[in-house]
Amino acid sequence: MLTGVVNAPEINTKHGWLNTDRSYTLKDFRGKIVLLDFWTYGCINCQHLMPDLHRLEKEYPQELVIIGVHSAKFEAEKSHEAIKQAILKFGITHPVVNDADFEVWKHYAVNAWPTVVLIDPNGKVIGQKPGEGIYDTIKPHLDQLIKDFGDRINREPFPFTQEQAARQVLNFPSKLIADPEGNLYLSDSGHNRILKLSTSGQILEEIGNGDAGFTDGSYAQATFNEPHGLALHGQTLYVADAKNNAIRVVNLETKEVATVAGTGELSYYFFDDQLGAPVNPNSPWDLLLDGNQLYIASAGNHQILRMDLQTKHVLRFAGTGREALADGSLREAAFNQPSGLALNGRTLYIADPEASAIRALDLDKAAVSTLIGRGLFEFGDEDGYFDEAYLQHCMGLTFHNGLLYVADTYNGKVKVLDLEKEQIHTVLDGLQEPNDVLVHQGYLWVTNTNAHQLVKVNLETGEQEVVEVKG
Questions:
Q1: Of 284, 371, 423, 450, which has the fewest beta carbons less than 10 angstroms from its beta carbon?
Q2: C-alpha span between 382 and 397 (Å, rounded)
């Protein structure tokens, strides 16, 4: 018989619960199989785990209760409201306890995100597993527990009152670019679509029908799954379709969407794996076009990829695949969930959020250096000289007139790097997890992601305006 020995430590905390209307103790779930998911919402590996959790919930609706234990890495991730927004963004249906002080984390001796812990119907710990890809490991244990405990399992459903999102035109807007005619293309990631907008906010075209999926076809037929980065090459729009692990291509003349790279599956490459051979993107987050070369921030495998627009082949370009803040040659350097790209001449700038870093990739010297950032667990909110400055999970950036504008996402700010003086200062604050920045027609445009807004700031007067996006 499969059964645990050690009593599962309590999971209730003083910081409260989300996605439910009450607090719980483990005794409330006695008779159920319980799976604890220790996560932090900015972690791409935690996001990769969610399809497995959804699948298990669907297959074992009577016997299994999944509980998210949110043990925040970053200070900003401890906020109840920020966790609520993440629950809505990721479509989480199970209750989540806020473990802001790592109390539950420590009691279960967890040491990595994500980690799942399986608890039997008697409240005993069966075991834990860190990392992604848990379905094939957990499912046999669930089947065995159901067989062993039989009628002693409580099969009454647990009703949880889930967080409700307000209806809005934009839902977690992400990356933003402009076209030569002055219009904007915006990834409305929470609505799984791309919008073409006028600068007044008028929706000119909608690409994708809004459903989460992986379907090619006309604008009305095509589906995306959390699209982010965008790049425009003539009448072709490239889209980083993050949750589909794919690069989609939009023909703006025929109004058709196709897939140019990726199969929908997660693919990993480390050190010398597949060098010089075609690879698949892993949670691609941003795109940058330089001539006929498309650079891809492959956040899920901590690498920069490059696609030749003529051959359509995607190759590894920079990064070992391990998550670390390491400078050096393209083969030696390591990144931390790269999520934003910008170009100035022959330097590719990279927003490296899990290390709260800004990286510089010299395309001529084929080498990576760090402008700001000290490591995976060093972050803050300090302006000044680069070697004194701190950011917090910065996700977007753009270059304009010798300045590098950065979406300092978890600090809710936009900051500007003066590359000549090697100084950084804040130009906009009070935002809610801004994901991208763009300088266009004398304005600084910002996707104020968790406020579900598009904001523009007059660069001369500093006047700020929320752009009303309308159909």
A1: 423
A2: 18
Q: How many CB atoms lie within 10 A of CB 453?
A: 20
Mean pLDDT of all residues in 39-47: 97
Residues in the chain: 471
Which SS3 state, helix, strand or coil, does residue 455 take? strand
- Distance between CA atoms of 398 and 197, rounded to whole angstroms? 19
**Worst-scoring range by mean pLDDT, 10-19, 92-101, 164-173, 312-321?**
164-173
Evaluate if residue 1 carries a pLDDT over 60: no
DSSP character at residue 164? -
pLDDT of residue 4: 66
Q: Which domains does the chain have, with CATH numbers?
A: 17-152 (3.40.30.10), 173-467 (2.120.10.30)
Amino acid type, 159? P
Comparing C-alpha atoms, which of 352, 396, 399 is closest to residue 373?
352
Single-letter code of the amino acid located at 257: V
Check residue 388 and give its pLDDT: 97
Find, among 105, 118, 146, 113, the residue nearest to 130 by Cα: 113
Give the C-alpha separation, 264 to 60, whole Å: 25
Give Cα separations from 357 to 103, 379, 420, 435 (angstroms).
Answer: 28, 9, 18, 15
DSSP letter (8 states) at residue 332: T
Dihedral angle over CA of 376, 381, 383, 384, nearest 10: -50
Q: Which amino acid is at 59?
A: E
3-class secondary structure per residue, 104-134: HHHHCCCCCCCEEEEECCCCEEEEEEECCCC
Closest CA relative to residue 353, chosen from 325, 382, 321, 317: 325
Contact 136, 116 (CB under 8 A): no
- With bands split at pLDDT 50, 70 and 90, how would you rate the model's confidence at 471? confident
Which two tokens mark 103?
């109390």
Which CA distances in Å does 122 have to 3, 27, 33, 38, 144?
Answer: 8, 9, 8, 21, 15
Instruction: Read off the pLDDT of residues 341-390 as tens digits, 9 standing for 90 and up.
Output: 999 999 999 999 999 999 999 999 999 999 999 999 999 999 999 999 99
Partnered with residue 439 across adjacent β-strands are: 444
- The span from the CA of 17 to the CA of 57, in Å, is 19
Neighbours of 234 (CB within 10 A): 9
